[in-house]
Write a structure and sequence with these properties.
The structure holds 2 protein chains of 2 kinds. By secondary structure, chain A is mainly alpha-helical. Chain A is built from 22 helices and no strands. Helix content of chain A is about 65%, strand content about 0%. The longest helix of chain A is centred in the first third of the chain and has 30 residues, at about 150-180. Chain B is about 30% helix and about 15% strand. Chain B is built from 9 helices and 11 strands. The termini of chain B are far apart. The chains are: A mainly alpha, B alpha+beta. The interface between A and B is large, with 65 and 66 residues.
Chain lengths: ~600, ~290
């Protein structure tokens, strides 16, 4: 019943929010309020807010599991579900924040046809990679937890996974804080930012879980106590910021630290409404804090679209969470597991004390961790010594942010491979044949996808020679005309290398990536094709453009375009295999190289 | 209502609401597109910008710019400018010349209301300031896609097609030299293409002073076509603002070429840079007083 009400409330916020989202996407960043100094606005503050909640969910579940604090299954599953839904919400905002949304893929460190690579020095790239790894591992962690009832192999995976995720969450949120802390904006500077952000994330996550626990009709005192402890920790940080920078925001203080102190009054904390109000006050205070951080200079200019985006984020989160919660009712509530019950099956031998290096988790984890560290080391060495990025100095601090996420990703894949394989191949474990065949197919397809992705990251493809390797001696001169109207081959070559080679390649061969990125696929140029198309039509294409080709009419003159066509023909000839009879080429060449009469009219040779 | 019907209704509603948002002027009349502006509009806007001049920046002394230390940098060319504050009388002709050379659109009322202009050159307390083309540029470090990059010749350049509009570079520029295209300059009727060799930027990308990169490229191509084996030093090139200055207060040149007018002019002058970027190795400096 409560879920149905929540679903309607979520939809009531989501649908008007969608209008704001659609308008923002259509109008671009002019739609919402942006800060004069930082150019950022509400979407980034919402991103930081929701990613904080996303981190806290897994953090609560994984840290408590890793540290051996008992939390019941429903609460920890709820926390992990919060993570997944908040991640989806958080992913929307950096995307819609972009000025050119369709170029978002350029942030992914994936070499493209022109050899341009994402700038791995930018905290935004670190952010993207770290959050992608985090989302994947959170999903795996949640899946393992959900099905740990049925498969003992998965149950055994939970603690090692928790140990992998524990540092990952701290690491990823540190990276999010570096988005701010590495810049020159005075309000964003501070070496304490990672701790400040992590504390804020846990605090807001605890408040969110407490809100959801009220909806579930129960309470977990441990989480409430933690929330109170964090309210004082945040107060400490705000006091520190006041002492260092002289910034103090009363509304953040009131909602984030002052109102939660009502918890000390027993009649407030005993009533669900009181608990709900305190938790929502904390959430609102922390969102305000992020908003004032992102827009330090004009926070009071807050428009309708900003309100709509806020409503959209809350609505999307609520709708997603409630729909998933209703769908997963059976695995979450199933069996005889109720609130307050222990999450794990009892460990067979309970030793009072184990040496860390002989503990069960360490023995399971040591091989995957070794593989992960080795892969991360190889990656770091490759990235630091990469000669292709020769205009950018990539130093160790620039690639170090990806170190632990790579370790965690590889270690988790290695860790999960055997149990998953066992479950997929064991006939006794999987009930229906459909799931079995799906599992088998997945276990074959998944490694292929991973390999293909890695190949794309490291190999840009293509046969084109970079312009720095081509020398003037390997190009034959091709203009024998006495007309001054057509610029000579060296001039054409200079234009080609400056204007055309970024797509067509210095040697005139498109590289393979180029062909994959564009449709329709460009034709390979051969001397025969040149002859059949004719010079005039190709000049027309250069001047006016065609499908994927940009028009160059306002940047180069027609004689230059004509010289380019001839240069292209000479490139096509030099690219042809040698077995084509030379006599044939010699016959056709003079015909094409004859000067064309029209070009004499507006003769203009660039100096 | 069965599940299929519900899903159909639900997805149609969601799509409908999202599409409703995709309108010009959400609840009011659509924004009117004006006709392309003429030169007088730009002159008026420069006058407005001069009347809303920002306060002066604190200047500190800097040494003469030397060769870049970044990998791949040329040891022969590092282009830059020196602005003679003793000669400059803040007439604003450089701002207009820059607009005409680089097809900078009109700023639009929303931006002007916030005291901002799209102009690549702005006057801070009577001193023209543009992107200082820092050797250790903070904007390039945070650009996620590599759209903001450094050419070997020492220019902090923009690859507009590679820009995804995250605006991180704008946040990280200490002096706010970067301008963001909140509106489509062509569709909103705010741009006039004075110069055919410079593209008008699209909606959602950052732009800033390019040190008239197109003039340098034309010079390089012409030179390389005639002298393929000689090294090009950018002699004879000047930027639009330098050419337009009636007092000859802006001097463009190559810091690493002793014959360049820039080096000749700056040799016996005291050089300054804004304090906020003085430690970032700027290529553009102020001159004041003689040594």
């Amino acid at each position: 019943m409560i879920f149905r009400i929540l679903l309607y409330a979520g939809l009531a916020l989501l649908l008007p929010g969608l209008v704001a989202l659609g308008y923002s996407l259509w109008e671009g960043p002019a739609a919402w309020t942006t800060d004069v100094r930082t150019f950022w606005g509400v979407p980034i503050s919402l991103f930081v807010f929701w990613i904080g909640i996303a981190h806290a969910g897994t953090l609560i579940s994984a840290i408590l599991l890793a540290l051996g604090v008992k939390l019941d299954r429903r609460t920890s599953l709820l926390a992990e579900l919060t993570t997944l839904c908040a991640l989806v919400v958080a992913a929307v905002f950096p995307l819609m924040h972009l000025g050119v949304v369709e170029n978002f893929y350029m942030v992914i460190p994936f070499a493209d046809a022109r050899g341009s690579f994402a700038n791995v020095r930018s905290p935004l790239v670190w952010d993207f990679c770290c959050i992608a790894v985090y989302a994947l591992l959170s999903l795996v962690f949640f899946g393992i937890h959900l099905f740990s009832e049925r498969f003992q192999a998965l149950e055994d995976l939970r603690r090692p996974m928790a140990w992998l995720l524990f540092p990952l969450v701290l690491w990823v949120h540190t990276i999010v804080s570096l988005d701010f802390a590495t810049t020159f904006v005075p309000q964003w500077q501070g070496a304490f930012f990672p701790l400040y952000f992590i504390a804020g994330a846990i605090y807001s996550g605890l408040a969110m879980v407490n809100v959801l626990l009220v909806a579930e009709g129960c309470r977990v005192r441990l989480l409430e106590k933690l929330m109170m402890a964090f309210s004082f920790l945040m107060l400490l940080f705000w006091g520190w910021i006041f002492a260092v920078k002289g910034e103090w925001n009363f509304s953040v203080f009131a909602f984030g630290a002052l109102l939660p102190q009502l918890w000390w009054i027993s009649s407030v904390r005993e009533s669900p409404v009181g608990r709900l109000a305190i938790s929502i006050s904390v959430l609102f205070g922390l969102w305000l804090e992020r908003y004032y951080l992102v827009s330090p200079t004009n926070p009071e200019a807050f428009g309708w679209i900003d309100v709509g985006l806020l409503a959209f984020s809350i609505g999307l989160f609520t709708t997603l969470l409630v729909v998933l919660r209703i769908k997963l009712r059976k695995p979450i509530e199933g069996g005889e597991l109720l609130f307050g019950e222990l999450d794990e099956k009892p460990v067979p031998v309970v030793e009072p004390h184990t040496e860390p290096l002989t503990s069960r988790e360490f023995i399971v984890l040591r091989f995957p961790l070794l593989v992960g560290v080795l892969v991360a080391l190889v990656y770091t060495l490759w990235a630091v010594s990469r000669p292709a990025l020769d205009t950018v100095s990539v130093l160790l601090p620039n690639v170090a942010p990806l170190f632990y996420p790579i370790v965690a990703l590889v270690a988790a894949l290695v860790l999960c491979a055997r149990p998953f394989w066992k479950i997929a191949t064991d006939d006794a474990l999987l009930m229906n044949s459909k799931a079995k065949s799906l599992a088998r197919r997945l276990s074959v397809v998944f490694p292929f996808v991973v390999l293909a992705f890695l190949a794309g990251m490291f190999y840009a493809g293509g046969s084109s020679t970079p312009s720095k390797y081509s020398t003037s001696s390997d190009i034959s001169h091709f203009v024998e005309s006495d007309s001054v109207a057509v610029p000579d081959s060296l001039h054409a070559r200079a234009i080609w290398n400056a204007r055309c080679s970024s797509c067509h390649g210095t040697d005139g061969k498109f590289n393979e990536k180029f062909i994959r990125e564009f449709y329709p696929v460009p034709q390979k140029l051969t001397a025969e094709r040149f002859d059949s198309l004719g010079e005039d039509s190709l000049v027309h294409v250069i001047m006016n453009g065609r499908t994927n080709m940009n028009p160059y009419g306002d940047r180069i003159t027609e004689p230059e375009a004509r010289a380019l066509v001839r240069y292209m023909r000479s490139l096509a000839e030099s690219n042809e295999p040698a077995d084509i009879s030379a006599s044939e080429k010699n016959e056709s060449a003079p015909e094409i190289d004859e000067p064309v009469s029209e070009t004499n009219e507006s003769a203009e040779v660039a100096p | 209502m069965d599940r299929r019907e519900f899903l159909k209704l639900f997805s149609m509603t969601v799509a409908g609401f999202a599409l409703f948002g995709c309108r010009d002027g959400l609840f009011g009349t659509p924004v009117k597109r004006d006709a392309a502006p003429n030169l007088a509009d730009f002159e008026n806007e420069v006058r407005l910008a001069l009347s809303k001049m920002k306060p002066g920046m604190e200047l500190v002394r800097v040494p003469m710019p030397a060769a870049h230390k970044i990998p791949g940098a040329s040891s022969e060319n590092r282009f830059g400018m020196a602005i003679d504050l003793d000669a400059c009388d803040a007439c604003g002709k450089c701002v207009l010349a820059c607009i005409q050379e680089n097809n900078i659109p009109l700023s639009g009322p929303e931006l002007v209301a916030r005291g901002q202009f799209m102009h690549w050159i702005e006057l801070f307390g009577g001193a023209p300031a543009m992107c200082f083309h820092c050797g250790d540029a903070p904007c390039e470090k945070v650009c996620p896609t590599g759209a903001a990059n450094h050419t070997p010749d020492g220019i902090s350049a923009m690859m507009y097609k590679r820009c995804t509009g995250s605006r991180f570079c704008g946040a990280n520029c200490p002096i706010g030299a970067r301008k963001f295209n909140f509106e489509d300059p062509v569709a909103s009727g705010r741009s006039h293409k004075f110069n055919a060799s410079v593209p008008v930027r699209e909606k959602g990308v950052m732009e800033k002073c390019s040190l008239c990169l197109q003039r340098l490229q034309d010079s390089r191509q012409g030179f390389k076509a005639l002298h393929p084996s000689e090294s090009w030093r950018g002699r004879g090139v000047t930027t639009a603002c330098a050419a337009a200055c009636p007092k000859n207060a802006i001097i463009f040149g190559n810091w690493l070429d002793d014959d360049s007018p820039l080096v000749k002019a700056a040799k016996d002058r005291v050089l300054y840079a804004p304090k906020a970027i003085a430690s970032l190795d700027p290529s553009i400096v102020y001159m004041r007083g003689r040594r």
